[in-house]
User: Fold these one by one.
Assistant:
Number 1:
Amino acid sequence: MIGADGIGSPVRQHILGDQQVKAIYSGYLSLGSVLPRSQVVLPPDLQLPAFLYSRHGTILVFALDKDTIQWATTSPVAERDRHDWEDYRMSGQAVAQLQSDWSGCTLEPIASMLRHVTDDNIRLWAPYQVPELARWHTARTCVLGDAAHAVSPSLGQGAAQAFEDVGVMARLLTTLPDTTPPSTIFSQFEGLRRPRVDMIRKMTASAESTRGASSSGLGWFVKDKIIKASFMVMGKGKGSYMSNGTIGGYDATNIDVKV
Ligand SMILES: Cc1cc2nc3c(=O)[nH]c(=O)nc-3n(C[C@H](O)[C@H](O)[C@H](O)COP(=O)(O)OP(=O)(O)OC[C@H]3O[C@@H](n4cnc5c(N)ncnc54)[C@H](O)[C@@H]3O)c2cc1C
């Protein structure tokens, strides 16, 4: 059995037996909304999708279609249970949090997006991650995707890693002889995928650490320069982060299967 049953996976619990694993809240709530493009002041040279870094924090902006803009940011907000998050949204606390975090921000399109966010159109997501597991499989059962390694969405890699898992599992199932025991398939799968997922986990944590607000003007000045320099360096060369080599260059059809 292969369990692709998400962050609260019962299959994972079966594999781990008595060892309880609890998904961990990242501590940063994602807040955002969907707005008509006419309400958003988009600077003419801004290409979407874009991450906008500022002293107040970071905002992701993208076009859902030609008339609609979606944006999202993160705020440090204490964990609540599922129903309390809805209260948090409906009671105006979520909008108040955004207005406080971004108070005084006059940069566009951020200022116009924040002007139009309301209790009715605000959306929020509490991102959770699955800690590193002792194992992903037993002799006859295996987990993949979020069930095995959910990461926070800071690098946009959760579903991407689930797809890669599926690509590798499909390749093993179609390349190895039919008589191969499931335990051999699952063990190769875990061996092939763990190092990749560990690297993505570290890159996600590093991306997350750049997204928060800066506590002082000097802090932001330094961070701004570091971010610009990093993008210039990382953007160069084959296999670089920006040229999509490290992340987007993974080819599940080309992995080395031990037959
Ligand atoms: C705010 C946010 C933004 C994100 N942005 C990105 C992004 O930009 N890029 C990216 O790659 N990823 C992103 N992700 C992560 C992505 O959504 C997940 O990593 C991905 O959905 C994981 O896929 P999955 O199939 O492993 O699990 P899921 O999508 O959780 O699917 C699991 C399925 O199993 C079903 N299930 C559970 N238990 C049972 C059961 N007992 N019986 C039958 N069915 C069951 C569930 O109903 C569900 O349909 C984001 C996540 C969030 C929260």
Number 2:
Amino acid sequence: MNGRWWKSKTKPNGKKAPAEEKKHYMDPEYTKVRVMDFDLKDLVALPTKEIDLNEWLASNTTTFFNLINLQYSTISEFCTGDTCQAMTACNTIYYWYDERGKKTKCTAPQYVDLVMTFVQKLVTDEDIFPTKYGKDFPNSFESLVKKVCRYLFHVLAHIYWAHFKETVALELQGHLNTLYAHFIVFVREFNLVEPKETCIMDDLSEVLCAPLPPHSHNHVTER
Ligand SMILES: [Zn+2]
């Protein structure tokens, strides 16, 4: 089912869309571009025992929130109630559950807005993400961080499935891939998102998150 979630008026190369185009983001042309030549695991690991795990999770989660919000904002004009009537990625539709646990259907831009508002409120709440020295994290901290990471994953997955072409047109696929790889390695390191949630993007995760071979500094790989 090609082109299910994006509507492109013209194909950039004038070719008819092949079936595999639905995974445009898996094209080696895009995945071969590795911005960082070092092991992402070193970047996400808790630096020393001096740093509290919760502080590390809080600071990284806040950074990912800001970066993913920024990445989404680059394509947000293309993500409308018409183009994206549901929050989709692969064959999954994400539904929003309100504070009373009621399932609600919303368009992708509405869903992203709910996610960003929810996360913004959490990360700026001094009782949940304390920034002052000596202030304790609440017992619910870990489960809230997991919730935030799951929502942020939905946004990234939607960008890949529905707005990758627009990201490429803006030449921001390198940023997106780097952000995605960093995020995935981080959530894996601390078991923050269930594998059953991230499995829809496993093929990309494998390509982008695999450590580079030790002798290879030549990024070009043959198809
Ligand atoms: Zn969209």
